[in-house]
């Protein structure tokens, strides 16, 4: 066991002790650093985020494992359009066929990247699929009074930003080989293609072994992200945030910040955005819905599981600037972003 | 870090993984069997949770079944197959992370959000109709929607149950009756409020649950308000949330 693993083990024991201590104190109705009621709220929000996301993560992991066991890099090379630009455009529309939310898409893209999908095309999928899909489109349509205007704005801006970020990411990261983007173990990949993953023969063995590993890998990041989100949701006041003195331009980053901190699933965020209609014009609300579906506290932690640290950082910067510049420009062009 | 974090021993890692998956299955089953799942998510999503519990149970069994299969195929007794691939030996931290929902879920009962959360999230008091996916069923939501859509004329009688929230405003204190509207899960819920006034509401304590009956009147700032005639303190409802 190396030093880092030993350090992590000490951290694990400490975390376990704190968790058990905290759980036993909370079970007895005592507060621990924070008031008991606040802890109850944090745990309730944490578990609600975790339980809501779990089925979709599992679905994503199943698809990811099927890709791992059944799809060869050759197939990926044949299916992905040779024209890079076209490949990005097509990737942005895949949500229409595979409506998966932001939690479920990450393991799927992770597996595809490991099989040779260009990283920038994978980035477009991660960003566009949680927005450009029928489930999210329906909820947006309903949330905004069954008027197609907001829906069309959300789909079009989400699609364009996703493709734009993907292309920029591809240009900036061209000198990095694909395998550096995801923690690919070449031997492991070869092993799976040969159908001998985890020492278990056959495609079924590869599928089942990968399923367990992938679920283990992704779910722990989901736990971490959900817990951070729960702490923020329980302590930061939306009333205080939207009560800050802001102009029509500052409203855009303010709503993006709110979306990042709240980590609401893209299938429900339109309803929350809709509740702010009396306070904000439409462009900040679109910033809330588009940016929040691409990046939030929960997905930041999960992206870290997919990309190497420097690439994850680069991707986050591109998403933030892509959304910010787009919605600020649209606010100016629309004269304040009135609906 | 991509490898098994249990010191490189695939068998012990898979055993731990199977145990954690079993634990998660049992936890989900308990939430579903006791009905506590509705404290966390919209009941319409419970079908997904049921399917997840079943799938995790099967996954746990398959991980257990993989242990002897892998050992036989590998032929190694002292270390796991992953060692052949030279993966780094990780820590036990990830297992602890997965234990977190189980420990906290077992120890801490889910609570309906209190008045502090209602005030932090901002209480919805208009345009409720656009947030609903269909005709509401809960009497509170039916009344609130009709009230804010202008379908309840002044003088109409209303009976609703919810949590009392006392909110300080520039012009004084207002008293609201609130319920949290859950879209997918408690984390995305928004408080919906109905303004109350009258001598009867003065006795209502902040955070108490009450059933009130009264008549619709045009309140301060034109917000439809209930002029309360009778109040009754009630226990927190079994399902404190309302759904769109």
What does this structure look like?
The complex is a heterodimer of chains A (339) and B (244). Residues 177-198 of chain A have low confidence and may be disordered. The relative contact order of chain A is 0.12. Chain A has helices at residues 3-27, 36-70, 73-79, 84-91, 102-114, 119-128, 134-143, 148-172, 178-181, 186-193, 202-235, 238-242, 251-262, 269-274, 282-294, 297-306, 309-333. In chain A, helix 4 (84-91) runs parallel beside helix 6 (119-128), helix 5 (102-114) packs parallel to helix 16 and helix 8 (148-172) crosses helix 15 (282-294). By secondary structure, chain A is mostly helical. Chain B has helices spanning 10-34, 46-74, 93-107, 115-121, 139-149, and strands at 157-169, 172-181, 190-197, 209-218, 224-233. A five-stranded mixed β-barrel of chain B has the order 1-2-3-5-4. In chain B, a hairpin with a 2-residue loop joins strand 1 and strand 2 (172-181). Chain B has 244 residues and is of the alpha+beta class. In chain B, 36% of the residues lie in helices and 21% in strands.
């Amino acid at each position: 066991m190396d030093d880092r693993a030993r350090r992590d083990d000490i951290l694990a024991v400490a975390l376990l002790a704190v968790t058990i201590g905290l759980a036993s104190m909370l079970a007895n109705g005592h507060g621990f650093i924070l008031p008991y009621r606040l802890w109850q709220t944090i745990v309730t929000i944490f578990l609600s985020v975790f339980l809501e996301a779990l089925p979709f993560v599992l679905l994503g992991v199943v698809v990811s494992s099927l890709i791992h066991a059944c799809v060869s890099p050759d197939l990926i090379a044949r299916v992905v359009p040779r024209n890079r630009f076209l490949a990005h455009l097509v990737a942005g529309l895949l949500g229409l066929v595979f409506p998966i939310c932001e939690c479920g898409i990450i393991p799927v893209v992770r597996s595809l990247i490991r099989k040779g999908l260009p990283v920038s095309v994978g980035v477009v999928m991660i960003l566009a699929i949680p927005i450009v899909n029928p489930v999210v489109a329906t909820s947006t349509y309903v949330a905004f009074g069954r008027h197609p205007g907001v829906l069309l704005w959300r789909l079009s801006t989400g699609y364009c930003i996703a493709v734009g970020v993907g292309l920029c990411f591809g240009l900036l990261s061209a000198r990095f080989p694909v395998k550096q983007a995801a923690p690919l173990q070449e031997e492991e990949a070869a092993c799976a293609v040969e159908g001998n993953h985890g020492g278990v023969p056959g495609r079924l063995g590869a599928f089942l072994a990968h399923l367990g590993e992938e679920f283990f890998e992704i779910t722990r990041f989901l736990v971490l992200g959900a817990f951070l989100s729960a702490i923020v949701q329980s302590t930061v006041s939306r009333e205080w945030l939207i009560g800050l003195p802001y102009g029509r331009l500052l409203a855009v980053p303010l709503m993006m910040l709110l979306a990042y901190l709240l980590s609401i699933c893209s299938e429900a965020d339109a309803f929350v955005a809709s509740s702010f209609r009396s306070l904000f014009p439409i462009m900040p609300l679109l910033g809330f819905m588009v940016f929040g579906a691409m990046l939030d506290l929960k997905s930041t932690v999960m992206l870290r599981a997919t990309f190497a640290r420097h690439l994850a950082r680069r991707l986050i910067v591109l998403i933030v600037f892509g959304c910010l510049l787009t919605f600020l420009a649209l606010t100016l062009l629309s004269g304040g972003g009135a609906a | 870090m991509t490898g098994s974090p249990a010191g490189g021993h695939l068998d012990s890692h898979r055993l731990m993984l199977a145990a954690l998956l079993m634990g998660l299955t049992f936890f989900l089953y308990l939430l579903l069997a006791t009905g506590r799942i509705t404290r966390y998510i919209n009941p319409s999503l419970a079908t997904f949770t049921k399917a997840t519990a079943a799938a995790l149970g099967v996954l746990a069994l398959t991980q257990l079944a993989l242990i002897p299969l892998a050992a036989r195929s590998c032929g190694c007794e002292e270390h796991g197959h992953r060692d052949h691939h030279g993966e780094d030996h990780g820590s036990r931290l990830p297992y602890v992370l997965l234990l977190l929902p189980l420990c906290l879920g077992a120890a801490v009962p889910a609570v309906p959000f209190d008045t502090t959360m209602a005030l932090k999230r901002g209480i919805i008091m208009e345009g409720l109709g656009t947030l609903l996916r269909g005709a509401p069923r809960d009497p509170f939501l039916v009344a609130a929607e009709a009230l804010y859509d202008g379908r309840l004329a002044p003088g109409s009688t209303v009976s609703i149950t919810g949590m009392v929230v006392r909110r300080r405003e520039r012009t004084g204190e207002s008293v609201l009756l609130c319920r949290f509207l859950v879209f997918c899960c408690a984390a995305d819920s928004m408080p919906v409020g109905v303004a109350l006034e009258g001598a009867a509401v003065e006795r209502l304590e902040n955070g108490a649950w009450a059933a009130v009956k009264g008549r619709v009147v045009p309140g301060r700032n034109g917000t439809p308000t209930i002029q309360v005639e009778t109040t009754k303190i009630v226990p927190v409802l079994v399902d404190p949330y309302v759904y769109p």
